[in-house]
Specification:
Elements lengths: L12 E11 L7 E8 L2 E6 L4 E5 L3 E13 L2 H22 L3 H21 L13 E12 L6 E6 L4 H11 L1
Antiparallel strand pairs: 1-2, 1-7, 2-3, 3-4, 5-6, 6-7
Helix pairs in contact: 1-2
Length: 172
């Protein structure tokens, strides 16, 4: 997304980041958004081109809270799913009483075997199945003087809180 097309004459981007709107902006501005703090205002622009701007004079406070975010690789998920399907299929096969149950167990076993075989090269031991990458998420809340929406909340994985607060204070 090109932020430059939203700028006025003599307006410059001081800080730009990607984030997720949590609350406080219009229904047209939600989900993934590109934010830009300029020398005049704060812009929020969606991939579809919807935008909202907030003059810094309306922002009375910038609050930042951090929280951990855990993620795993697709290989980890596929292997876990594979092992569950593999052993679930075997378990059902052991207690199956009719052909439908045997067929279901066979399908589960074959799917599980497929997941395990296709991901085995990336397997680094059973302990690696539960290694999750931890990143920090910054939950930022802007306290505004607007009576309709007195808080605007968004999340980002970029540590922009202090710089955004400085820009708001310097231009206000």
């Amino acid at each position: 997304m090109d932020v430059e097309g939203y700028l006025t004459t003599n307006e410059e981007v001081r800080l730009q980041w990607d984030g997720q709107v949590k609350s406080g902006l219009t229904n047209a501005i939600k989900g993934s958004v590109i934010f830009a703090a300029t020398n005049m205002r704060l812009l929020a622009i969606t991939d579809s081109g919807n935008s909202k701007d907030i003059e810094y004079s309306h922002i009375s406070s910038v609050e930042v809270e951090t929280s951990p975010k855990y993620s795993s690789t697709g290989t980890q998920r596929d292997l876990i799913l594979g092992f569950i399907s593999l052993f679930g299929g075997l378990l059902i096969l052991l207690v199956a009483e009719n052909n439908a149950q045997i067929l279901l167990a066979g399908i589960g076993f074959i799917l599980g075997l497929g997941f395990v075989v296709f991901n085995w090269d990336d397997f680094e031991g059973f302990s690696s199945l539960f290694d999750f990458e931890e990143t920090t998420v910054y939950n930022i809340t802007l306290i505004t003087g607007d009576e309709e929406n007195n808080q605007i909340s968004f999340q980002t994985e970029e540590n922009i809180g202090a710089e955004l607060s400085r820009i708001v204070r310097e231009t206000n």
